[in-house]
Amino acid sequence: MEELILAAAPCDLSESAVCAPANVNELFEFRETVYFVFGLPITRTVFLIFLVAAFAIALFYFGLRKRSTQPGKFQLAIESLMTFVRDDIAIGIIGPTGIKYYPYLLSLLIFILIGNVFKITPFINLPVTARMAIPLFLALLTWVIFVFAGFKRNGFSYFLGIVWPPGVPAALKPLVGVIEFFSTFFVRPFSLAVRLFANLVAGHVMLTLLLTTAFVSFATIGEIGLVKGAFGFAWWALGLSIFMFEIIVIILQAYIFTLLSAVYINTSVNAEH
Question: What residues contact 166, with CB distance under 8 A and at least 6 apart?
């Protein structure tokens, strides 16, 4: 609810149609220390990151601790998710060697998915993936893995194949090589991070502004009048429709990030293709 308070505090619907904070960064920056652990300050954002990790561990622990030949719905859902990541993403995209990257891809998908779900979780309402440091760290981790895998599998020919790509006319090789070099080593991690970050930020801002405006409209209808107060229902309906759409975005963005990570690893370990 802190986001609602921040957005609603300076709000006067008699003067403005939408409640918005003076600085949108207020919806994401929580620098106040919640408590200390071994003398280290823990902010709300740091706490939520650890909470995401705790939920991920609990998900697998309770989903797989009593595996049976007739699994319950929860165990079946967890096993289906694991099978999907293993067969359709890890092995399906990378090939037989993709099984080595399956634990990483599965962890990546679960972490991002839970972090995204926090956006619509009551009393949290903050996707940790809407803090640029998190998508950037995950993207750099993927970058380190696919670059290391490329050199380990193909040696120096991995780099040579990028800067002097085979199958390209000799006159175009220098230009294409420069483009491929910057694309592989600089653009990929940046674009991977920004794609996740931008989608989560946009949805979080829209939901906060619309639902905050609806909340303030209902709460102050006696002051602003029935006509302006009625707009609160429009904001609430629009916010609700975006809320339903955001559920799709939450799942889709976790899948896309994981899928692209597998694609990038595949281009490294199977560079000859």
Answer: none
